[in-house]
Write a structure and sequence with these properties.
mainly alpha, 0% strand
Length: 109
């Protein structure tokens, strides 16, 4: 059982290292080309706008069973989770439409 715990901790450390490197390395590379940061910033802002639109659409209703002790779900958390799910669905459908559009465009050319 101890080796499982050790490998879980190693996996957590590796995930943290990977996440930090995924954020830091593109920033280091973009120092040579600051114009690329504008595109990245625009993409992050667009993603934030989509999330906040979906967050405002999401319902904050909590069923009494989930508001009880084991879950302790609050209306704010319920709305956040709903917003995250709606954002995921919206981005999935945008990606799907992009794929369909690309394939139709290729077929026409």
């Amino acid at each position: 059982m101890d080796s499982i715990d050790i490998f879980l901790y190693v996996a957590e450390v590796l995930i943290i290292i990977g996440a930090v490197l995924a954020i830091v390395m593109p920033l280091i590379k973009s120092i040579g080309d600051p114009g690329s940061l504008i595109k990245t910033g625009a993409a992050v802002v667009a993603l934030a706008v989509v999330f906040f639109v979906m967050y405002s659409i999401a319902d904050n209703e909590v069923i009494p069973r989930f508001a009880a002790d084991p879950f302790n779900l609050t209306p704010g958390l319920s709305q956040f989770v709903g917003g995250a799910l709606l954002t995921t669905y919206a981005l999935f459908f945008v990606a799907l439409l992009g794929i369909v559009f690309t394939e139709i465009n290729k077929a026409i050319k």
